[in-house]
Amino acid sequence: xxxxxxxxxxxxxxxxxxxxxxxxxxxxxxxxxxxxxxxxxxxxxxxxxxxxxxxxxxxxxxxxxxxxxxxxxxxxxxxxxxxxxxxxxxxxxxxxxxxxxxxxxxxxxxxxxxxxxxxxxxxxxxxxxxxxxxxxxxxxxxxxxxxxxxxxxxxxxxxxxxxxxxxxxxxxxxxxxxxxxxxxxxxxxxxxxxxxxxxxxxxxxxxxxxxxxxxxxxxxxxxxxxxxxxxxxxxxxxxxxxxxxxxxxxxxxxxxxxxxxxxxxxxxxxxxxxxxxxxxxxxxxxxxxxx
Length: 291
Fold this sequence. Notes:
Elements: E1 2-4, E2 8-10, E3 16-24, H1 26-29, E4 39-40, H2 51-70, E5 79-83, H3 90-95, E6 103-105, H4 112-125, E7 130-137, H5 139-146, E8 162-163, E9 166-173, E10 180-186, H6 200-219, E11 229-231, H7 235-248, E12 257-259, H8 260-263, H9 267-270, E13 276-277, E14 285-290
Parallel strand pairs: 3-4, 5-6, 5-7, 8-13, 11-12
Antiparallel strand pairs: 1-2, 2-10, 3-9, 7-9, 10-14
Helix pairs in contact: 6-7
């Protein structure tokens, strides 16, 4: 590995993304990305007695789907990095307890998935052959955890976002045809004093901006180097803020940038206000894929 600038690592032998899997809920199944999911649920409870148990089941079945698709026996998998939005990573811990693989429970809120990719990439570069990264969320369990239980019927303000009900998992390998993770840039905590818990986009956009600017500085690249720059869940409000912040710094990212919280739902038909949340690709982290 090579250290570039302040916060970026370049891999001499880039880890490859060998396989991926995703199971999503019914609202996500009605959105524009449904065709990319391995399975779409008709019921957010999925036969369980609580939202949390349903989320744990989604995690378990997503990782099982990943292993099946990859063709890699579970006894060959050396580490698992997984997290969710609940206390003590409870969905991941219970969902993956039968996997019998060394387990790192991680929590990076909406950057958990890419946090796992970054850590797993370092392990793969260090010599291991196979590692799993997983992250999950459930709209109903996260509302109870962070905002208001659904049974209270609280009105959602226009700035709010809809937490995705889904789990995603990927298998990283030392060898394979790609895509490859060639660089990782780890972000810092950037707190601009936003106190509105229902305006996540405004709260997170400065951290995304700081990470992107650091990545450009560390690598010497411009936005036009990339086919796509994606943030995880800034939503419509945060996306516009990030575009404006980048413009003030002399970077025009509008032609190559989008936010996954914008892409996951259809704003005109699904009433998700400022878009989706918990999209895992990137919030305070950045990684570069090479094909």
